[in-house]
Structures are given as structure tokens and as C-alpha cells.
Write a structure and sequence with these properties.
By secondary structure, this protein is an alpha/beta fold. Helices cover 42% and strands 17% of the residues. Helix 9 packs across helix 11. The chain is globular, with a radius of gyration of 24 Å. The N and C termini lie far apart (60 Å). The protein binds S-adenosylmethionine.
Length: 277
């Protein structure tokens, strides 16, 4: 009989956050696959868990996943953990999970801490929807391309960011997304935890190097002005279409400028109207 692959969440700072179930599974499985075995040894030692460890990190994910699947086929029960939080959320894990599913190996999530849920839980998002982006690309050109593609979405955007990139990240966000509200959740569950609600411009202006240490999640709220509904956009486009004075391209330009919305989303709707007749 095949073993089970457990996906186990571990603390993002405060060791008290580990769940009783996580401790039991980590003690009971035959093997723990960990992103950094030296790092995880400290966690396991703290809880007197002596289960053998094997490394499972991004650069060797494919090869290691194949090895783990062979062990699972042979009946080994394996727990996958990352350095902190929930595996496969901006962390290795997805490859072995996909392989296990294809091989009909049981996969059992053991939920627990994640910087994502911790930050979102104190962001007061109404109605509760958000877009998790994770890490933006490290290079500014690619980061700006991504931010432009997100600019017209009316969702709070959740980013992870490394300390040494925070300043450049905020600068690009300010330039492309505008001066929106932002929540900066730093060092969650740790001694110097700090949750700051500010505007992007205010935050960028007040950055100091002390604050740039540690782990951070950023939640950038949507623009405060409600975007025009798709109904409004459609009605304007219909009007231009019926009048027949402007080309589709010019109609889109006119609608986008009048309503202050991105041309791409207007263009998609215009295509429907111009193509269906
Ligand atoms: N899988 C993890 C999870 O579930 O949260 C995330 C791993 S990702 C490689 C690491 C990033 O998560 C950090 O760069 C930071 O953006 C965020 N993070 C992790 N721990 C954090 C903490 N204690 N406070 C704030 N952000 C944290």
C-alpha cells in the first residue's frame, strides 16, 4: 500500500503557533522532506521530534520529487515542510503534490500558519476577496509589467517581499498603481511584529533602514474611487457603436479617458459589441 504525503504548515516565527496535529504527524511519519534541513532540525529539536529528514528545495525539486514518489510507492509516509508557513505557497511543494496526485498517492494537508492568512486576517478586507500575487519579479522592468497588468483590477493585492527589495518595490507600486492605501505586515507573530496602515506615498516617504529588516507582507488596497461598472462601460460603447461615427479603437479611447479606466478592459468589451453584429 502506498504511503501518505502530508503537507504540514509550520510556524512563521512564533513556535507556539505549531498545531498539535502537526506535531503528531511530524513525529509519526517515516520521513520529513524539508526545504532546509539545518533550519528544520532546530524546529524538530525544540519539539523533541527525531524523525529523519531529507532536503527538498527549489533547485532540486524535480529530482527530489521523483525520489519521494518512489518512497511513497514503497509505503513510506512522508511529511513535507518548508522553512516557515505553509508549503507550496511561494515555497517548494507543488511538483511533488502534482506527481503524487497523478500517481493516486493520498495527499493530506495539515493546515496551520501562513504569512498570507495572518496578514489578510488583519487587513479588514470587505467583502473578503483578494488577489495573492506572492513575490513580484526582482527586476524592475518585469515587476512594472506585472503591476501594469494588475492596475485595473478591483482587488486588494497581496505581495510577499524580501527586505532588500522593499524600497524599489514600493517605488514601482507608487508609480504604477498610484497613491493607494497599503497595509504593511512585518515580522508577524515575532517579537517586533508591526502592522502599519498607510498610503503608498506616505509609507515610501517615511521608510527607514531599521524597518527594512525582517519579513514583510504588503496588501495594496484597490483604488478608493469605485470603478465604473461594466454596465456603464458597455452602455457607452453601445452608444458609440449605434452612432457609427467613431471606429472601435477611437470609441475605446474615448470611453477609457472619460471613465478613467484602462483601455485593455474596455477593448475586450468593445470586441464583443463590434463582433456580434
Ligand atoms: N510558505 C510561506 C507562508 O505560508 O507564509 C511563505 C514562504 S515565502 C518563501 C517567505 C515570505 O513570506 C517572506 O519573504 C515574507 O514576505 C513572508 N513571511 C514569512 N514569514 C513572515 C512573517 N513572520 N511576517 C511577515 N511576512 C512573513
Amino acid at each position: 500500500m502506498a504511503g501518505t504525503l502530508y503537507i504540514v504548515a509550520t510556524p512563521i516565527g512564533n513556535l507556539e503557533d505549531i498545531t498539535r496535529r502537526a506535531l503528531r504527524i511530524l513525529a509519526e511519519v517515516d520521513l520529513i522532506a524539508a526545504e532546509d534541513t539545518r533550519h528544520s532540525k532546530k524546529l524538530l529539536h525544540h519539539f523533541n521530534i527525531a524523525t529523519p529528514l531529507i532536503s527538498y528545495y527549489r533547485e532540486k525539486e524535480q529530482q527530489r520529487a521523483e525520489e519521494l514518489i518512489a518512497k511513497l510507492h514503497a509505503g513510506t509516509n512522508i511529511a513535507l515542510i518548508s522553512d516557515a508557513g505553509t508549503p507550496a505557497i511561494s515555497d517548494p511543494g507543488a511538483i511533488v503534490v502534482n506527481m503524487a496526485r497523478q500517481a493516486s498517492i493520498p495527499i493530506v494537508p495539515v493546515p496551520g500558519p501562513s504569512a498570507l492568512t495572518a496578514a489578510v486576517s488583519c487587513a479588514g478586507l470587505i467583502p473578503g476577496e483578494f488577489l495573492f500575487v506572492g513575490f513580484a519579479p526582482p527586476k524592475s522592468t518585469q515587476r512594472c509589467t506585472l503591476l501594469r497588468s494588475l492596475r485595473d483590477l478591483f482587488y486588494p493585492l497581496v505581495f510577499y517581499e524580501a527586505p532588500h527589495r522593499i524600497e524599489r518595490f514600493l517605488k514601482d507600486c507608487l508609480e504604477i498603481l498610484g497613491d493607494r492605501e497599503i497595509l504593511w505586515a512585518r515580522e508577524l507573530s515575532k517579537k517586533y511584529e508591526e502592522i502599519t496602515h498607510a498610503t503608498l506615498g506616505g509609507l515610501f516617504a517615511s521608510l527607514n533602514t531599521e524597518k527594512l529588516r525582517g519579513e514583510s507582507v504588503f496588501i495594496i488596497y484597490p483604488p478608493t474611487v469605485l470603478p465604473p461598472s461594466s454596465d456603464t462601460i458597455e452602455k457607452m460603447l453601445e452608444k458609440f457603436y449605434e452612432q457609427g461615427e467613431l471606429s472601435m479603437k477611437d470609441s475605446c479611447k474615448e470611453v477609457a479617458e472619460t471613465l478613467g479606466v484602462g483601455r485593455t478592459s474596455v477593448y475586450q468589451r468593445a470586441l464583443h459589441i463590434w463582433n456580434k453584429r
